[in-house]
Design brief:
262 residues, five-stranded mixed barrel, 8 helices, 36% helix, alpha+beta, single chain, three-stranded antiparallel β-sheet
């Protein structure tokens, strides 16, 4: 599902987020924002980024291309700053990266562009589906690029998998996501029912299973108690399927939040 590239040059850290992602040049001559496996959030943030990003893309939302990227130990040795060098050393091997959008700026609800209601509604429901708590006015994680609104940084999504395990693989899958009240695009989300129909058509059972199967072994930690990487991926697939069944509940909560807002 994702291309794999190799990092050839470390450019600079991007200190806007707590994970200190890196701007890296790859062997396809592209520049990528790399989410490092060795950062404080660990590989679970990379799984959330992968799953959420591919769900968003399938729903027609603007997301920078995601790629798997391999980091060599030479990158860390060449970095003079100890903090960055240690982070690169801890992330040798497979990581996740997003295509760099040069000239993009953080979305500002006042400065615009004014979100399209259909698009805003899809983003609101998408974030509710993946339980993304990081799309607030203070921290929108949206970029404006070529007059469009692009979604970035989904590492805080799928919060159920922190402390997750095989004893309760469907935990939180029926969560209506009351945090939707904080969503930065909720004021423009006037077409939620239509958005729900659009998302349900875009996300089939087979598709969400395929996304789960795309999670690399390197991102799956052994401390969650699953019998194997395949069993771990299957649990993600089962959770996403159960979440699909909960879409009417998610829609109702978003509509309730929207009614309270106006």
């Amino acid at each position: 599902m994702l291309r794999t590239v190799n990092a050839v040059r470390y450019v600079t850290p991007l200190r806007e987020g707590g994970s200190v992602p890196a701007l890296v040049e790859a062997d396809d001559d592209g520049l990528y924002v790399v989410k490092l496996r060795g950062a404080a959030q660990g590989p679970l943030a990379l799984i959330a980024e992968l799953v959420a990003g591919e769900l968003a893309r399938a729903a027609g939302l603007s997301v920078p291309e995601l790629v798997l990227i391999t980091l060599d130990s030479a990158l860390g040795r060449a970095e003079p700053h100890r903090e960055i060098s240690d982070l690169l050393d801890a992330s040798v091997g497979l990581n996740l990266a997003l295509d760099y959008l040069p000239g993009s700026v953080t979305f500002d609800p006042v400065a615009g562009p004014t979100p399209d209601p259909a698009y805003a509604s899809r983003v609101v429901l998408f974030d509710s589906f993946v339980t993304n708590v990081d799309r607030t006015p203070k921290n929108p994680n949206l970029l404006t690029w070529h007059r469009g609104i692009w979604l970035i940084d989904h590492g805080a999504s799928l919060y159920f998998h922190h402390g997750w395990g095989p004893a309760d693989p469907l935990t939180e899958s029926q969560d209506p996501f009351t945090f939707v009240r904080k969503h930065v695009l909720l004021p423009w989300a006037t077409a939620l029912a239509e958005a729900a129909a659009h998302l349900r058509a875009a996300w089939s059972e087979a598709f969400v299973t395929r996304i789960a199967q795309a999670i690399p072994d390197e991102f799956l930690t052994d401390d969650m108690g699953f019998a194997s990487p395949d069993a771990h991926r299957a649990a993600y697939g089962a959770w996403l399927s159960a979440r699909l069944a909960a879409l009417p509940l998610i829609l109702s909560e978003a509509e309730r939040a929207r009614e309270e807002l106006v």
